[in-house]
Amino acid sequence: MNFDPWPTLFVVDVEGNGANPPDLVEVAALPVRDGGPDTSTAGAWLIRPPRPVTPRAAGIHGLTNGLLAQSPAWGELTDQVHALLGTAWICAHNAHTDYRVLKAHLPNWEPAGVLDTLRLAKATYKDLPRYTLDSLIKYTAPDLTAAPAQRHRATYDAYATAQLLIAMASHYDTWDQLVAAAVPPGLPGAPEPEEDPTLW
């Protein structure tokens, strides 16, 4: 895979407070440049949610109400997050979720397209028993020694997802082939269905 023609792309991951719909408590946006994650220009934000973090959510990602008490509210960060993401492509694992939550919090934002590493993994590795992020990390064994924080934190999960994307991209010759395999129908960037040929 030649990475030169790739458009600007951020691997994103969000963590929520356990409410439904969720309030954001962490957002990570990690650029992929020249075939690798670029942590030097990544964005990562901790957010004080308007509603408390549930014990279950805190037990998963470790972000407690006390830890977030001094973090800014989402309204103080929206312009910054929107400015970084711009109209770039995004990628996430089970991307419907991250796209939907980000879109709810950034109503004026629209990415150029959305790659889903879950969908891509099912197309690339056809016979795996499971396609969770943990299962794919175990299967592809990417180098995560430079990943920040730990599993279930947005920065770590974005880094791991970026490494998965890069590993799977090697199975495709072109960006367009990757897009065809990785963009869920109905999300930005999905290939247009070919129109039925007419007799004329």
From TrEMBL:
<keyword id="KW-0378">Hydrolase</keyword>
<feature type="domain" description="Exonuclease">
    <location>
        <begin position="8"/>
        <end position="174"/>
    </location>
</feature>
<protein>
    <submittedName>
        <fullName>3'-5' exonuclease</fullName>
    </submittedName>
</protein>
<keyword id="KW-0269">Exonuclease</keyword>
<keyword id="KW-0540">Nuclease</keyword>
<dbReference type="GO" id="GO:0004527">
    <property type="term" value="F:exonuclease activity"/>
</dbReference>
<dbReference type="InterPro" id="IPR036397">
    <property type="entry name" value="RNaseH_sf"/>
</dbReference>
<dbReference type="InterPro" id="IPR013520">
    <property type="entry name" value="Ribonucl_H"/>
</dbReference>
<dbReference type="InterPro" id="IPR012337">
    <property type="entry name" value="RNaseH-like_sf"/>
</dbReference>
<dbReference type="Pfam" id="PF00929">
    <property type="entry name" value="RNase_T"/>
</dbReference>
